[in-house]
Design a protein that fits this description.
With 110 residues, the chain is of the alpha+beta class. Helix content is 17%, strand content 31%. Strand 1, helix 1 and strand 2 form a beta-alpha-beta unit. It is globular.
């Protein structure tokens, strides 16, 4: 599994039922947002902001990745329930490091 070859990274901004399986998460992508799963990484979070599920399509199947933080903290996640947001690789790195991707600037300038 290699996520470095994906064309796009998307986050589903609203809370998702983390009991959903691969099929349930794929249904959200296709039915609710009318998007195809092809060569993209889709990120979902639930009620607890310390875990993420991801869906990735590979040539021979679909992979679900589950990450739960083992340290105290949480992911900073956009909350607009009605959207899927495209991320840059930099935003993805920030998100996975626990940095809020919605902050206007990391350093305040005067």
């Amino acid at each position: 599994m290699d996520i470095s070859n994906v064309d796009a990274i998307y986050i589903v901004c609203g809370r998702t039922d983390m009991c959903k399986s691969i099929d349930g998460l794929c249904a959200i992508i296709q039915d609710q947002f009318s998007m195809e799963i092809d060569n993209a990484l889709y990120l979902f979070y639930g009620r607890k902001c310390d875990r993420i599920k991801a869906i990735l399509k590979e040539p021979d199947g679909i992979v679900m990745i589950y990450k739960k933080l083992t340290v105290k903290g949480s992911y900073r996640w956009p909350r607009d329930r009605s959207e899927v947001r495209n991320l840059t690789w930099r935003e993805f790195d920030c998100l996975m490091s626990g940095i809020d991707i919605e902050q206007p600037k990391a350093i305040r300038t005067r």
